Sequence to fold (167 residues):
Amino acid sequence: VELGGGIRSLEHIETALSLGVHRVILGSVAVQDPALVKEACQKYEERIIVGIDAKNGIVAVDGWGVSGEVEAGELAKRMVNAGVRTIIYTDICRDGTLTGVNAEATVALAKESGAAVIASGGVNSLDDIRRLKALEADGICGVIVGKSIYTGALDLQEAIEIAGQEG
Fold:
């Protein structure tokens, strides 16, 4: 289980992890309190993930309602310097639209930052899973799917099989 959303203190992180959560996802706090991210990474290492949600390359915070006034790539580099190993990158222009994952921006973020990146937003078919799987060597380490499963556009079992294949 991974948990994200509204986590703004080391106490909240510690509570979640002590309850059995495997990894905690930090989002807005990465922009608003990067020192907390660094402290959490020092204490919990790979159990801390940063979620970067961006619109046209600019980070959005507080439920996507406010600009974080930083480019996604710049924030990703800062987070890697703070000790983050994995980032979830959501293209919020595509999230929930079933228009296809933004593989290009996701790979660019992975290459620019050196982090392993989980793609999110817009996945609409097994072709998206295949495209991301082919980019594994470029830093893509996973994908989040939601609406595509709920609508039946993507078969979860087939997606898991594709993702698990040796590259």
About this structure: Residues 125 and 152 are 9 Å apart (CA to CA). The mean pLDDT is 94.
